């Protein structure tokens, strides 16, 4: 652990470079080895990035060499790499170095085009609605029932796997980028569980917002609360755990099934992840009494990969399902959105618009081009394109409009 007593509290530019290129801190930490052979801890790397304090137990030159090698493997140019150890006190207010404003790098992707920026919504302007003859925004408040959930094949398969976990007590982690529709899919699964009166499945959902603080004790309390809301929870850890197991067994004997659902699971500590297997091991005869569904961003996959040995008991039993980009389903997705407001897609989008959007929503990771064609990002980009087309007085959104975004 680094000594931060005399920390200058000045971040280094490496943090902004990682953000700009979509590289997680976990990815970098995994490439840096301590003298013990273990990856650099996330805490030590975070202190280095945010305070400029070097870890005491790992050689500074080893960290620099491993970091530079990793950035070069992602094809980041040498001029940019040369800035990563500089103090970041003169960075722009948005956390990006002045380096990115330099005209020499005008051909770089705008940081606003990176993953995560898709969370910034632009509303459909009233003038845009009038221009296209719309009475409602197709992308606002767009999922009001199960009929509004778009389910391409990959999503349908994962949905069935989640329901199987709920009905049969298995383990599954659902991983997807921000905006991929994880929460919508999870809500649809929960709604299906509640509607299935034959199965009588009870969903247990810990309500703590900050999942970094979620502990096994809190999960035990959530089981008690959701199975018997008026229960008087015992005070000791032993007492609470016995109480939870008794409630699960009594509920099972009454013909009910149970599933523990944890969203934002990428924020869970590795200790809590490891202990999930203990909950899954609560059995009656050969039957597991508690299925477990974890839902999280790709950092969950990274965390499981980085701690593959420590969490092997869980990982070896955990099915990991990844939500894929819309790909060829883009036209069907948009057609459904416009159909909901009784507007043919052909009256909004030109035939070349979808291919232009596919091209736009790609990013370079190393030598690979990766699609970011996820529902939330599509909603944002099409909204912006419609506003732009209306401003230009164009009858349809075409590839030229999308290229101007």
Question: In words, what does this structure look like?
Answer:
The chain has helices spanning 14-20, 25-31, 42-51, 60-73, 78-81, 126-132, 153-168, 182-195, 216-227, 237-253, 270-280, 298-306, 312-315, 330-340, 353-360, 375-392, 399-403, and strands at 171-175, 201-204, 257-262, 283-284, 287-288, 291-296, 319-322, 362-365, 368-371. The protein has 405 residues and is of the alpha/beta class. Helix 6 crosses helix 16 (375-392), helix 7 (153-168) crosses helix 8 (182-195) and helix 9 (216-227) packs across helix 10 (237-253). The chain is flat, with a radius of gyration of 24 Å. The protein starts with 13 loop residues before the first helix and ends with a helix. The model is unreliable at 1-8 and 89-119 (pLDDT under 50).
**Helical amount:** 40-55%
Rg is: 24 Å
As for the number of domains, it is 3
CATH architecture of the largest domain: 3-Layer(aba) Sandwich
CATH class of the largest domain: Alpha Beta
* Apparent shape: flat
Total number of helices = 17
With strands numbered from the N-terminus, the spatial order across the biggest sheet is 2-3-6-1-7
Structural class: alpha/beta
Mean pLDDT: 85
Main sheet overview: 5 strands, parallel
Q: Let me know the number of strands.
A: 9
- CATH third-tier fold name of the largest domain: Rossmann fold
Q: Which ranges are low-confidence, i.e. pLDDT below 50, for 5 or more consecutive residues?
A: 1-8, 89-119
- Proportion of β residues? 5-15%
End-to-end gap: 45 Å
CATH superfamily of the largest domain: P-loop containing nucleotide triphosphate hydrolases
N to C succession of SSEs:
HHHHHHHEHEHHEHEEEHHEHHEEHH
């Amino acid at each position: 652990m680094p000594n931060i007593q005399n920390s200058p509290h000045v971040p280094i530019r490496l943090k902004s470079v990682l953000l700009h290129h979509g590289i997680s801190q976990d990815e970098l930490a995994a490439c840096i080895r301590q003298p013990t052979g273990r990856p650099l801890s996330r805490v030590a790397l975070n202190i280095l990035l945010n305070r400029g304090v070097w870890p005491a137990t790992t050689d500074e030159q080893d960290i620099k060499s491993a970091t530079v090698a990793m950035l070069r493997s992602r094809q980041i140019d040498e001029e940019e790499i040369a800035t990563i150890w500089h103090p970041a006190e003169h960075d722009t207010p948005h956390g990006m170095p002045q380096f990115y404003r330099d005209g020499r790098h005008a051909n770089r992707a705008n940081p606003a085009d990176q993953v995560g920026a898709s969370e910034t919504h632009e509303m459909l302007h009233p003038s845009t609605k009038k221009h296209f003859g719309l009475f409602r925004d197709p992308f606002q408040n767009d999922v009001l029932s199960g009929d509004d959930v778009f389910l391409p094949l990959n999503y349908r398969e994962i949905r069935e796997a989640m329901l199987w976990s709920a009905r049969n007590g298995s383990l599954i982690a659902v991983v997807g980028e921000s905006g991929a529709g994880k929460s919508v899919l999870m809500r649809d699964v929960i709604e299906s569980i509640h509607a299935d009166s034959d199965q009588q499945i009870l969903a247990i959902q810990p309500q703590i917002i900050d999942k970094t603080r979620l502990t096994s004790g809190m999960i035990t309390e959530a089981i008690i609360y959701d199975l018997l809301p008026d229960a008087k929870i015992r005070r000791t850890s032993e007492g609470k755990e016995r109480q939870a197991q008794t409630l699960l067994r009594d509920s099972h004997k009454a013909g009910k099934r149970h599933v523990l659902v944890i969203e934002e699971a990428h924020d869970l500590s590795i200790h809590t992840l490891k202990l999930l297997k203990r909950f899954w091991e609560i059995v009656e005869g050969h039957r597991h009494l508690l299925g477990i569904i974890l839902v999280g961003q790709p950092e969950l996959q990274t965390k499981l990969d980085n701690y593959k040995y420590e969490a092997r008991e869980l990982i070896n039993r955990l099915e990991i399902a990844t939500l894929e980009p819309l790909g060829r389903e883009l036209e069907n997705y948009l057609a459904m959105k416009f159909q909901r407001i009784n507007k043919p897609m052909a009256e909004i989008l030109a035939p070349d618009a979808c291919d232009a959007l596919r091209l736009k929503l790609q990013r370079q990771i190393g030598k690979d081009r990766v699609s970011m064609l996820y529902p939330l990002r599509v909603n944002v980009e099409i909204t912006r394109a419609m506003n732009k087309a209306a401003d230009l007085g164009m009858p349809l959104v075409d590839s030229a409009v999308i290229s101007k975004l």
